[in-house]
Design brief:
Elements (H helix, E strand, L loop, with lengths): L4 H4 L3 H23 L8 H26 L14 H6 L7 H7 L1
Helix pairs in contact: 2-3
């Protein structure tokens, strides 16, 4: 199954490029954290590394959704996620309404 361009407004190739860019950016940030010279016992460094790992996991999940044809569909309400939201946050799992209601 492939990404339904009419539901998301994004072409599968464009979605993949956005996800690849997000992954490369986060990997570069993670490397910069590793090279920061701060000690491993620094709680801020630990929190930043954990946040980066979580985002990288979300990006991996988004690649899987792209492959199985569910990319761009909110995991809560099953409605299409607006293309504008996917452009800003290509690995998002939720539409704004569902994200705000779960906060």
């Amino acid at each position: 199954m492939s990404l339904d361009v009419t539901r998301t407004g994004l072409h599968p190739h464009e979605a993949r490029q956005r996800l690849e860019h997000a992954r490369a950016s986060r990997l570069a940030q993670a490397q910069a954290l590793d090279e920061s010279g701060r000690g491993a016992d620094d709680p801020l460094l630990s929190d930043q590394k954990n946040a980066m790992k979580q985002i990288l996991d979300e990006i991996a999940e988004a690649f899987a959704r792209l492959e199985d044809g569910t990319y761009g569909t909110c995991l809560v309400c099953a409605k299409p996620i607006p293309a504008e939201r996917l452009e800003i946050l290509p690995y998002t799992r939720h539409c704004v309404t569902c994200r705000l209601s779960s906060s």
